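Sync notes, pocket subgroup
Present: LS, DG
LS reminded everyone that the earlier model was apo-only. Rerun requested with beta-D-fucopyranose included. Inputs:
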Amino acid sequence: MTQFPKDFVWGAATASYQIEGAWNEDGKGESIWDRFSHTPGKVQDGDTGDVACDHYHRWRDDVKLMKELGLKAYRFSVAWPRILPEGREKVNQPGVDFYNRLVDALLEERIEPWVTLYHWDLPQDLQDEGGWASRMVVDAFVEYADVVSRALGDRVKNWITLNEPWVSAFVGYQHGHHAPGHTNLVEAMAASHHLLLSHGQSVPVIRANSLMSRVGITLNLTPQEPASPSVADRKAATWVDGYINRFFLDPLVGRGYPQDIVNGFGKAMDFIQPGDMDTIAVPVDFLGINYYTRNIARADNITEEENEPRTVIRGDEITEMDWEVYPKGLYNILGRLHFEYNFPAIYISENGAAFPDKVRPDGQVDDPARLSYIKRHLEMVSKAIDAEVPVKGYFVWSLFDNFEWAFGYSKRFGIVYVDYQTQQRIPKSSAKWYSQMIRENAGL
Ligand code: FCB
């Protein structure tokens, strides 16, 4: 691997609901994920984020661990219902204080805080008013962004408004696998729009409160490859690309919603009001991308016999999520992003893999498959940098094993193992490798 630039940001990422626990402590309000995980049958094995990694109580030791690993940056999210338990108006000071202390501790260790404002834990009170499907949420989000950026903006200089709005909108409101568990396409479309609008309206607010800051948004981008050169497979790939990738990328750069997808949905987009699309297209300082795998698109509107034989075959290296390990896809999506969308900077805000890790009798956790996954994806990042794509940093998902949404604790993504009985943290061999990689490249 070639040397990374000296100012390359080396980080790890987490999210509030996945690690904090303390779901009802110190005045925190209920979130849609509290409600969802407490509803029987929604999360595997009945797991909840009630305790998770108990990071709310163990943050001090966790920051020490980050320091030991040599992380230069830490991406975490703020739990909206800790700050505004009812979603708006009444600020819960103990919640603000928690993040104040965390930010101070990080800065003391020279670890750059990267704050995601929304990583899926909407206050339940706002969901009771319709959640993201309802336009009222936009004002509430801007108020929340204002409170947080006022409180932390003197010290936090890197802001991500939203994590993966496609997942919030479509997995939450159309597929029903995530909170709030609805299955309504029109709600999902409205939710996407209100998410993007919340982003657009909050960017100038954050900039005003946090001088000299960088503000961006994180998307989950999944490159699509037709399974064969058939027209039907190309059509399928174009559709999924539009549905997952272009439906968010295009409006962010001022191109509006992609017409093929709007037509395909076949529903009125009457939630769009004059001026909205300009608001959404506010220039950002960077785009964050979360990359895990590619998708091989196969037409489902014709039979296998009618279709051409597959020429693109899924590799046999598969993670525990049943995701193909495909580092090349990261290089492809970075190149495409740069040449088709031209964001001023790109950060890999998440990349990583779940494997069934075990603690060895000597107390160590050896995870060669994850180490190799991270290494090969970093090689693609380095290749993209050589090709002049402005990739400025990389955050491994995740710092810790944690609550993997509908899969509960059954999937371990951490470079640090968490024993959920004792809350002991054990850096895996991937963490040690990553740590070494940072030291070599950051000139430590
Ligand atoms: C992403 C989420 C993150 C984590 C990874 C595996 O979609 O942003 O919270 O669950 O997937």
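DG: Residues 294 and 329 are 6 Å apart (CA to CA).
LS: The longest strand covers residues 112-118.
Action: DG to write up.
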